[in-house]
């Protein structure tokens, strides 16, 4: 791509670093911003900078939050004895949208993936195990996507907590293998949380 301006080229190259954005799309977005009033670009840059600078991770569940403890963990009407283990904030949003879950979450920050070089220590597994071993938890629900990485992660955690007197379950799979939670429709996802099955049963099926 030949650019008539170094400034334009730089902006396009930065935009094209984002996932799913090729150079052509990046150029289209940048040209769109150029046509808008300058403030529009200002709002966009400020929103991104402030998000990056001020965002926090909840001390309890590791969900993305504006405060030290997120709104879900701080909500006294929720049941703190039931913990739903998810990969990231998108899964929390998807499950919250179903209105079927009134416990708390634990956000792992990813899945164990040797191919991508992600090991257990890069995830928040240790703090989850600690939480469960504290004895205040009655049930741990695994709600990771049913991919090899998801299953590996579930099993890794399960092995560490199976000696503790805690119920472990997994969301019932109306969701096709490989589907990410965020793409499952609300009704299906809601149903699969309500009809969750003991984790041991899921192990036998594999
Ligand atoms: Zn939280």
SSE topology:
Layout: H1 6-15, H2 23-35, H3 38-54, E1 56-57, E2 64-65, H4 71-74, E3 79-86, H5 89-98, E4 103-107, H6 125-133, E5 139-142, H7 148-161, E6 167-170, H8 186-194, E7 197-198, H9 199-205
Parallel strand pairs: 3-4, 3-5, 5-6
Antiparallel strand pairs: 1-2, 6-7
Bound molecules: zinc ion.
Organism: Flavobacterium aciduliphilum
Family: Belongs to the RecR family.
GO molecular function: DNA binding; zinc ion binding
Structure, described:
The relative contact order is 0.10. The chain folds into two domains: 6-54, RecR Domain 1 (Helicase, Ruva Protein, domain 3, Orthogonal Bundle); 72-205, Dna Topoisomerase Vi A Subunit, Chain: A, domain 2 (3-Layer(aba) Sandwich), CATH 3.40.1360. It contains nine helices and seven strands; from the N terminus they run H-H-H-E-E-H-E-H-E-H-E-H-E-H-E-H. Helix 5 (89-98) crosses helix 8. It is elongated. The protein is α/β, with parallel strands linked by helices. The structure holds zinc ion (ZN). Zinc ion is lined by residues 58, 60-61, 63, 69-70, 72-73.
Identify the notable features of this structure and list them briefly.
2 domains, alpha/beta, DNA damage, 9 helices, 206 residues, two-stranded antiparallel ribbon, 45% helix, five-stranded mixed sheet, binds zinc ion, Helicase, Ruva Protein, domain 3, 7 strands, Dna Topoisomerase Vi A Subunit, Chain: A, domain 2
Distance between the termini: 50 Å
Bound ligands, each once: zinc ion
Unreliable stretches:
none
Percent of residues in beta strands?
A: 5-15%
CATH architectural grouping of the largest domain: 3-Layer(aba) Sandwich
Mean pLDDT: 90
Number of helices: 9
Which structural category fits the helices and strands?
Answer: alpha/beta
Shape: elongated
According to DSSP, the number of beta strands is: 7
How many structural domains can be distinguished in the coordinates? 2
CATH fold description of the largest domain = Dna Topoisomerase Vi A Subunit, Chain: A, domain 2
Question: What is the oligomer described by this structure?
Answer: single chain
The profile of the biggest β sheet is: 5 strands, mixed
Task: Spell the H/E element sequence.
Answer: HHHEEHEHEHEHEHEH
